[in-house]
Design a protein that fits this description.
This protein is an alpha+beta fold. The chain contains ten helices and twelve strands. The strands form two sheets. Strands 3, 4, 5, 6, 7, 8 and 9 form a seven-stranded mixed sheet that branches. The chain has a five-stranded mixed sheet with strand order 1-12-11-2-10.
Length: about 350
């Protein structure tokens, strides 16, 4: 993550307008709501959504009224894919129209089931929450590029912004090296690829085997990952030059953060690499495929200013020339990305970045 935009690795974000792509760290910051207020609002919405899901599963009427459920889902399909329903016109019989639409809906649902994974996007950690030490977790992020690791159909794919950089066999469920039958297994991991050591550092988990984790809180997802990799150490093994390594999480307590920053950061093979920044997760946050204030980012050289703790000099040396403050740096970065977008230079840079990584792996 040598560059700020490397944090934006949503496969959809690279194709969205500028407000949702390069400027996502500032997106949604309206004059009415502060970052802390938006955090509280999102947590309330999560609770309401969870209650809605529970209530929906309590309703057993859908077990006895399948046609009504299908009709509702087909209506949703009609709204999402109107162009594909043109052939279901008035000259067709009602029953035929019904089954054509139903088949389209089934095909779309099947094709989208495991293909719509994208990565959660961070906001600048500009407003340090008052409950930082009680309700937040931290992971140290090494230099590298944010990637999506997708294991399915007996192969493992490393993807960035919708492009597949490489595929290789792994011991992840669906990755191809499992002894058991994992033909229907799917694993989706959020990670950082470090080019120098060819290591994918795992940040988070979206889907494991046949279970989705996106609706689970951060604490559960991290607990799941820690225990899975602890009980199955062979999961990090692959039959390629690329290796996997799980990034540990720890409480966002300032003494702990300071101690971690002063320790050497090494890979599983013992190679030492430099850190790039800190990733902050709210303990109760679900995994969402968009920007969220419950997922924050700070470069290492910004830590003393925002958290008031010491950082090793080698990390402070990465501070850009002319750097004055976090807020000014955000504003300058915002303006720079606007100019890149207007000139069309970002697309060329994105393609070059993908090509450089692909050549390094091959």
């Amino acid at each position: 993550m040598a560059e700020v935009q490397s944090l934006n690795t949503s496969e959809e974000a690279s194709e969205l307008p500028i407000a949702h792509s390069f400027l996502y760290k500032n997106t949604g910051k309206g004059p009415q709501l502060s970052q802390q207020q938006r955090r509280e609002l999102l947590l309330e919405e999560q609770i309401q959504r969870r209650h809605t899901i529970v209530d929906r599963h309590r309703d057993f009427t859908e077990l006895y009224d399948e046609n009504e459920t299908i009709d509702q889902e087909m209506e949703k399909c009609r709204e999402e894919y109107p162009s594909e329903l043109v052939e279901c016109s008035e000259d067709m019989e009602t029953e035929t129209d019904y089954y054509v639409m139903r088949n389209i809906w089934k095909r779309k649902r099947k094709s989208k089931k495991y293909c719509d994974f994208s990565l959660m996007l961070s906001e600048w950690f500009s407003e340090v929450p008052s409950d930082l030490e009680d309700n937040w977790l931290v992971k140290l992020a090494p230099e590298g590029t944010r990637v999506l690791v997708l294991a399915r159909n007996n192969s493992t794919y490393m993807m960035i912004r919708g492009a597949t950089l490489c595929d290789f066999p792994s011991n992840l469920p669906g990755g191809g090296l499992q002894i058991c039958d994992c033909s229907n297994a799917v694993t989706a991991l959020d990670g950082i690829y470090h080019k120098g050591t060819r290591t994918i550092f795992i940040l988070d988990c979206l889907h494991w085997n046949k279970m989705s984790l996106v609706e689970h809180e951060t604490t559960f997802r991290f607990y799941w990952l820690d225990n899975i990799f602890k009980d199955n150490p062979n999961l990090i093994e692959t039959e390629s030059r690329i290796s996997l390594s799980l990034l540990p999480s720890f409480p966002a307590e300032k003494p702990i953060i300071q101690d971690k920053l002063h320790q050497k950061f090494t890979t599983t093979s013992g190679e030492e690499i430099l850190l790039n920044g800190l990733v902050f997760y709210h303990k109760e946050a679900n995994y969402v495929f968009t920007i969220t204030p419950l997922f924050g980012w700070l470069f290492c050289y910004m830590v003393p200013e925002k958290l008031g703790i010491d950082v090793p000099q080698e990390l402070m040396d990465k501070k850009p020339e002319g750097y004055e403050s976090v807020e000014k740096s955000f504003a300058e970065w915002f303006e720079k990305q606007c100019k890149k977008w207007e000139s069309g230079r970002f697309k060329e840079k994105k393609e070059k970045k993908i090509m450089d990584i692909s050549e390094d792996i091959s």
